[in-house]
Amino acid sequence: MVQREKNNLLQKTKERLHTRSFHSGIWIVLLAFIAIVLAVGINLAVAALPEDITKVDTTPNALYTISPETETLLRSLSEEVTITCVVTTGYEDATLQEMLERYADLSTYLSIQYVDPTLHPDFTAQYTSDSLAENSLIVESQRRNTIVSYDSIYTYELNYTTYVYDTYFDGESLITSAIDFVTSDTLPTAYYLTGHGEFTIDDTMSGYVSRQNIALEPLSLLSSESVPEDCACLLIVSPSSDISEDDYDKILAYLQNGGKMLLYTDYIETDMPNLHALLSYYGIELQDGIVIESDSSRHIQGYAHYLLPDLVEHEITASIINDGYYILAPVVQGLIIKEDLRDTLTIEPLLTTSEDAFSKLVTDYTLNSFEYEEGDTAGPFTLGAAITEDNEDGSQTHLVVYTTSYLVDSQIDTIVSGGNSALFIKSLNWMCEGKQTVAIDAKGMSVDFLILSARDVSFLSLLFIGVLPLLVLLCGGIVWYRRRKR
Description:
The protein has helices at residues 2-17, 20-48, 51-54, 68-75, 94-105, 150-153, 171-183, 203-211, 245-256, 273-281, 318-322, 410-415, 419-431, 454-485, and strands spanning 81-86, 110-115, 136-140, 145-148, 154-159, 164-169, 189-193, 215-219, 231-237, 260-264, 284-286, 290-292, 299-300, 303-307, 310-311, 329-330, 335-337, 345-352, 358-360, 377-378, 382-390, 396-402, 443-444. The chain contains 14 helices and 23 strands. By secondary structure, it is α+β, with helices and mostly antiparallel strands. Among the domains are: 20-49; 217-434, Rossmann fold. The longest helix is centred in the C-terminal third of the chain and has 32 residues, at 454-485.
């Protein structure tokens, strides 16, 4: 009896195993298993992909998108670089963290680590004696190290339209510059001349120079026998008194040995024969007077002596032209390029005016008229020039001359959204053995708000609270009436 029941149960089990529903169940279980394996595999594969592939940057200003300059630098790394973020656990800056992850994905030589200062209070002492703000970065290689302060990563600029401070994220520019700094074989030094009442470059402009990993050092030729041998570029910014004959000899000797000089002059009624003799030796002279631009499209509205000059194609200006920047040159003089140049000398204009420009003489630093008058000199004029000379020893001398120091004034620079500072940095880099510029703009983070007038608010309120509900009720009433008639 028991054996018969066992046989019946076995028979029923075999029959069930051959049913369509059982086979369907087996396929469902198998497909579910395959789907789970594929899902896990895809997730593991995606997790191994770089951040720039798996995470699409949908921010309006491409906040997380890495620029081509940074990509080129990171992919060319051939030595270990470590970026240490000093931050208390739980207080990480999400924007900065996202960018660092994208940096690490672009180079196997770059590693990112986080150090909690509460757990390791003595960690930063080996790099600096100052206290570091949360989320500050320490960038280091075997050569050297540098610090990117968190306070400098975000900048704030007053919007004169809304009178609200706009926030800008400058992390990429600072981090890329820091990596370039710790991996560079040599770091050029630019010396700026002192002792003649020169214009002082403000912190904003000198900060731009530092980002190029170019050191700025003062130079007094009164106490120096010559221009230092490590001088990559001699910077002279609007001296208010003439250089001495001894200074002239030292500067000329430096230039004749393949030196580089970036000179900004201003209109001044004081005679400066030695400085002018130096310019004349290299084929240029200063036009007496201030340039006025008659073409309204080439100057700031209402200020005919605040010029918007044309940029002439050159290695210095090429990227500025491509990026569509304007240059603002207030109170500028014209340059006269001499005709009897030495065969070894090449002069290329960088900034020029229109043919409608003219140079007007100034009395006691006062412009009495902005109209063309008898005695004025008709244009066009060159306002900036690049000078190259091939020397007998095989070296090459570079000079760049601009005729207004306003080109290195940070307040004037803001009017043209950084065009003037870009020209300054490009000129300086051209001097420093063609060093590549790390010029990455800060990215805006401000939210654009929808501002509605009282009239707009009333109209929209009437539309959404009154008109649309009535239309819905009307449509509903029509549908109800038609169904009732059927």
